[in-house]
Amino acid sequence: MKLSNSPISNALSGIINSTYTAIAGMTFLAMTMVSGSVWAEQSSTQAATAGTVPVGRVVISGTVPDEATKAALLSRLQEVYGTGQVVDQLSVGGVIAPANWTGHVQKLIAPNLKTIHKGQLTVDGNNVAVRGEVDSETTKQTVTGSIANSLNPTYTVKNALRVVASSQSVVDQTLANRVIEFENGSAMLTESGKRILDEMAHALSKMESKKIDIIGHTDDTGTRAHNVSLSMARADSVKVYLVAKGLAPQAITTTGMGPDQPLVSNTTDDGRRRNRRIEFRVSQ
């Protein structure tokens, strides 16, 4: 079984054209995951392409020994990814699986595999290999432990997971708790605000496959209606600036929360200043 996970923008490079093999009675099942989707390939001639794989769906293909094994794997995928999200391209017959292979593979198809990016999980007989990117050492240990706990001592595991910062972490670190400032009572950016956005544009430009929500916040001075309108105008102003710096407008949404989500109390000048902020949320 080969399971790999990469961002949607890397769909073409993320697909691994692999071949099903049965060696000394061992079953090999190949699957490829892209973001929240799993793309599965049995051979280079049957492999799904980036243009035909439905985003957000789980596609599984390969050859398994019998209908019971097929049903068990499909059931597990539906449990993890949701009923209606699994596309069945499995074939049956012509191979012999190792003892308890089905049960071990079911356990390997665990929700925490979705935390691996640009990743690949391979099960070839009793040999398991996992590689890819995770966002923290804790996530790495969780995935590694889950894999180890799902197997018996006859299996060997090769762990090549790498810890890399998540897109949200990169954005948060770039903003570094700084406040993007506007002229008093308006949506016009100050020069210091523009300088921060120049840094943000550079960081966000590396996340072409991501969706970015720009969220405006205010303090509680004045009416709520005015503050909601002002926060939305400021979020829109930030979007206009970032688009002018080369970011794709269709990847950016804006929201105005007004005073409804303060970071701290509005009882001090510093608190009100911190609450007048722009927030960036990154998603697939």
Short description:
This protein is of the alpha/beta class and 284 residues long. It has helices spanning 11-14, 67-81, 101-108, 137-149, 167-175, 191-204, 224-244, 269-275; strands spanning 2-6, 22-23, 26-27, 31-34, 37-40, 58-64, 86-92, 117-124, 127-134, 156-163, 211-217, 252-258, 278-283.
Describe this protein's structure.
This protein is an alpha/beta fold and 284 residues long. The chain has 2 domains: 2-163, hypothetical protein tt1634 (3-Layer(aba) Sandwich), CATH 3.40.1520.20; 167-283, 60s Ribosomal Protein L30, Chain: A (2-Layer Sandwich), CATH 3.30.1330. The chain has 8 helices and 13 strands. The longest helix is centred in the C-terminal third of the chain and has 21 residues, at 224-244. It starts with a strand and ends with a strand. Residues 2-53 have low confidence and may be disordered.
Taken from the alpha-carbon principal axes, the silhouette is elongated
Poorly predicted parts: 2-53
Described by its quaternary structure, the protein is single chain
Radius of gyration: 24 Å
Order of helices and strands: EHEEEEEHEHEEHEHHEHEHE
Which structural class should the secondary elements be placed in? alpha/beta
Domain count, please report it.
2
GO cellular component, one term: cell outer membrane
Transmembrane segments: 20-40
Protein name: OOP family OmpA-OmpF porin
Pfam families: BON_like, OmpA
